[in-house]
Amino acid sequence: MKTFAILTALFASASAFAPSTPAARPSMALNVDLANGAMSFDRVCREWRCKYTGDKTDSESLEAISKVVDEYLPELKKLDGVTVNRLVCGACLDFKLMTTVPLEVYGPWEESGHPPEAEFLEKIKAIEGVSLVETQTITNMEI
Description:
Elements: H1 2-12, E1 32-34, E2 39-41, E3 43-51, H2 60-76, E4 83-89, E5 94-102, H3 103-111, H4 117-125, E6 131-140
Antiparallel strand pairs: 1-2, 3-5, 3-6, 4-5
């Protein structure tokens, strides 16, 4: 249990997403090693997620979420090297918006509060039928 708590604290801090030094990894200077070097990552994803109600093909709450995404997508697209993915699960009624950026972009974005995260989350929390609004930071590596 202590190991889990230590790892959780490590990945919760911005320093967990600091790039390796060029000397440590000359071919991938902007990677962070995981699992004693068995894995690494070079991008960080900030996930905004919630549950919605209704059927995926006829859901007023999902339609309202879509309008909020349309409102904030231009601001997210301004981040250097960004990839934005939208995921919808009709079986679980999950909605996720995943914004992935290179390591060198993530630190400043995190320090400024992941804008427009606060405004986006407040707007979807106000939608009738939306629940369990959460965020998560995840490492990302194309392999």
